[in-house]
Task: structure prediction
Amino acid sequence: MNLPEPPLLLITDRKQAIHPLIEIISSALDGGCRWIMLREKDLTTDERIALLFELTEIATPYDASILVNEDLTAATAAGVHGLHLPQNSHSPAKARAQLGPDAVIGVSAHTLKEANAAANAGADYITLSPFFISPSKPNYGPALMPRGFSAIAKHVTIPVLALGGIDHINTKEVLAAGANGIAIMGSIMRSEDPASDIKYFLDLIHE
Result:
């Protein structure tokens, strides 16, 4: 399974967004983002489906991939590209059986055991977190930091995206620790210029 390129997963959180979510995503797409996960846990499935259709409409001209967090019903109804699964959610195999063989299935992991379980269950990638303590989730931890992240990532057989507290200043450090890509949320949701900030992240990834 080839993951979306570039390896930057933008996760939505309209509670942190300083502009309407659709405007932020549109700007991020202009900046080069091609991989978006709708997270919005407080919405109903019907509300998620409606928002996924909106995101798909603006993402399609960019050939960008849309995923949704956990809601398999919404993913199926909206016909999106895949699903991201928290721990103790659906199995990757069940998600793929329902969404089709080309679906991109990811799993959240925090330990080597969880990461390997996701790989063995057929996930295409994991998000490994928290790399740093994040302003978005200040109570999640302890932070893996570069040493802890690297100790896990080097033993995982599928792509590992770093998540948690990643910004322009520390992106190179994150990639040096063995991340195959990055997942970001708050820094773009709170950005005055998502397109420019995405471009900056991508320049750091591709240096």
In short: The chain has nine helices and eight strands. The CA atoms of residues 1 and 124 lie 7 Å apart. Residues 8-206 form a domain with the TIM Barrel fold (CATH 3.20.20.70). Strands lie at 8-11, 35-38, 65-69, 82-85, 104-109, 125-128, 160-163, 181-184.
